Amino acid sequence: MEFSPKKTDLRVLRTKKLIFNAFVQLVEEKGYEAVTIQDIATEAMINRATFYAHFKDKSALYDEIFLYAMEAFTKVLDPELLENGNRVQLKKLELMITQVFKEIKKNRVFYQILTDGPAANSMKVKINWLLEQHYYEIFSKLKITENDVEVPIDFIIEYMSSIFIGMVHWWLNSDSDFPPEQMAHLLIKLVGNGHLTVLGIEVVK
What we know:
The chain has 10 helices and 5 strands. It has helices at 10-30, 37-44, 48-54, 58-74, 90-106, 108-114, 118-142, 153-173, 180-192, 195-198; strands at residues 82-83, 87-89, 145-146, 149-150, 202-204. The chain has a 3-stranded mixed beta sheet. It has a two-stranded antiparallel ribbon with strand order 3-4. Strand 3 and strand 4 form a beta hairpin.
């Protein structure tokens, strides 16, 4: 995975990429809990002091990589996809989701880590947060009800993120050879004509 910290110092960039790549490799081999700072330093061919010059601890390293990885998902959370507050263009949405799946495929190992075990919950929490940041106001205007009882927005967000993470987990851990384009199309087919309509969103094909 191409890790590009925001700092422009080339030495910092190079060192963080070494640390990042070492961490991902070790987590794949041993699991997150078993990886130590010394393991990371040895794999990255740096000393422990260098590691601590860049990260407070292993959790801080994970958090920075996690936030970088999650940037791919913000591409699909574009409020401009909704026109007049309740209309969505499926073709544009499908193209954006395809780009997300391409990013996931390119960095398959890391996203396997993110969607498996305890890390999956962290990923879902972050996606929920992103959905709330982008769409909370829109969802609140829709006023979705069931038997005259308003459906909580956090329930809707939890449901939507669970569908997406479930699909990604299946794709990464099965023998499926579905390309990103097909996964995006499948997701749109599943939610476009049913879930979005239930949410009160008008679908524009």
